[in-house]
Amino acid sequence: MSIGERIRSFRLEKGMSLTELASRSDTAKSYISSVERDLQLNPSIQFLRKVSRVLDVNIEQLLNDSVYENSPVLDEEWMKLAREAMESGTSKEQFKEFLEFQKWQKIN
């Protein structure tokens, strides 16, 4: 599936019109249309960033659908929590220990 096809698919899943996506992402409707129809095959990262925010997906999902085919998507809230943990000085090991403790609590 092409980038344009993925954008169109995500847009339709959200019940969003081409006009609405263009307006909310501050991009030209004609440009989005040309990307969706595979006339424009190399959209800029700025365009992908704008569109992905409106569609509430990761840029990686627009670029490669097989990456996230069978795995859950990390939304902005999860990303924010991970950043906060890193900024607070929590190490990866501490975080892993916390997760293991949570799993243990569920079992017991």
From TrEMBL:
UniProt xrefs under SUPFAM superfamilies: lambda repressor-like DNA-binding domains (SSF47413), SinR repressor dimerisation domain-like (SSF47406)
GO molecular function: DNA binding; DNA-binding transcription factor activity; protein dimerization activity
CDD domains given in the database record: HTH_XRE
Domain HTH cro/C1-type: 7-62
Keywords on record: DNA-binding
Designated name of the protein: Transcriptional regulator
Residue intervals of the Sin domain: 65-103
InterPro entries attached to this UniProt entry: Cro/C1-type_HTH, Lambda_DNA-bd_dom_sf, SinR/SinI_dimer_dom, SinR/SinI_dimer_dom_sf, TransReg_Diox_bact_type
Originating species: Domibacillus iocasae
One GO cellular component term: cytosol
SMART domains: HTH_XRE
